[in-house]
Amino acid sequence: MSDIKQQMQLLGQQARTASRVMAAADTRSKNAALMAIVQSIDSARTTLALANNKDLVAGRAKGLDAAMLDRLELSPKRVDAMVACLQQVATLNDPIGEITDMRYMPSGIQVGRMRVPLGVVGIIYESRPNVTVEAASLCLKSGNATILRGGSEAIHSNTAIAACITQGLLAVGLPAAAVQVVATTDRAAVLELITMPEYLDVIVPRGGKGLIEHISCNAKVPVIKHLDGICHVYIDDSADPVKAFNIAFNAKTHRYGVCNAMETLLVAESMATVILPKLSAALINAGVEIRGCPNTCKLVPGIKKANPEDWHTEYLAPILSIKVVSGLDAAIDHINTFGSQHTDSIVTEDYARGRRFLREVDSSSVMINASTRFADGFEYGLGAEIGISTDKIHARGPVGLEGLTSQKYIVLGDGHVRV
In Å, how far are 140, 164, 377 from 136, measured between CA atoms? Predict the structure, then answer.
């Protein structure tokens, strides 16, 4: 057995043992651990900064681009955000033990369902070391143990954060193995992690499409994932032009490299001459490259013509595809054909059309008169999120505390026997 395999097997064994302790931990203990981690991180700011600087120096030496270095940096503001995340998760309702749907059956027994932890959650992510705290806090509050494997470029930062988490767990008597960060940067560790169904109950990959496809294809453990965020805004015939402008502009320009940014704008024919010249000018002025259908190119001279691949593309960049469509039917058909089942929004003043859009667009988040940028665990009141799932089984949309739990049936009897 290789050293990597032995290391991962040991982490798995320790996590499985810790998961049983965590499943039995009460809300007070879990919240106390979160607040102890807050204190530990707050007092380790200098240590965290030094560790993060090592990663930044190494990243620059490797030629990481500015966007990657930005995601890697643990600025004082981001440390503040980690602390705020832990504090917020501590205030959230604990889902574990919640009993719902209790009902009497003709036999006299009572049947219901109880919410329980998943068990051991493996999380694989890239670049951003603050994900270590976000993931750990949600897994801890939901009564799970977790094994975290961050990107090799953040190894020093993640190791320093892990030490703070361990200190917080031990301070309140919870097992240190409830949150374990993989210490090796060897990529073989990922393959071992995703092929240990005896120790892990679910894998959550957070990162680029290549990483998620690799994990989805090779995992022997269930995966909560999304591959693309090809999000749409459709401006309907009955849209308010001011709302349409503000929503579309925000959905594209608020942040570019995020999965809930608009990548394709659909505009009803009757609205195209009203909204596209002004909106396109504002987008171009903001530095956005527009790729349009033939009708869009006529209305906005000088832009690039969209090719068939553009409708399938998640740019994660200041690039936007625009298509003029005949109406609601064509918009829904386009979204369900080319979308990634992430987030899609309609701008309309017609209640019936909005309701139809909600029913017929097959995505994890569907919106009326709101920017796609709201598709986020924090904005949905879930606290931090572990990711956004475009799967249809178990968890869909932003995955918060409830997404890290399952339900089991419970039966209450009083000497009942089946006849």
Answer: 6, 11, 15
The burial class, CB within 10 Å (0-12 / 13-18 / 19+), for 187 is: exposed
Structure confidence at residue 389 (pLDDT): 86
Q: Which of helix, strand or coil describes residue 385?
A: coil
Strands 99-104 and 110-117: antiparallel
Residue 319 contacts residue 289 (beta carbons within 8 Å): yes
Tokens of 249: 């502009």
Tokens of residue 145, six digits: 């143990």
Write out the E strands in 207-317.
231-235, 262-268, 289-292, 304-305
112: tokens are 């219901």
| pLDDT of 381 higher than 90 | no
Q: What is the dihedral of CA 367, 370, 371, 377, to 10 degrees?
A: -60
Chain centroid to CA 291: 28
The mean per-residue pLDDT over the stretch 381-401 comes to 81
| Placement of tokens 């999304």 in the chain | 226
**Global pTM value:** 0.84
**Spatial distance between the Cα atoms of 55 and 9, rounded to a whole number of angstroms:** 27
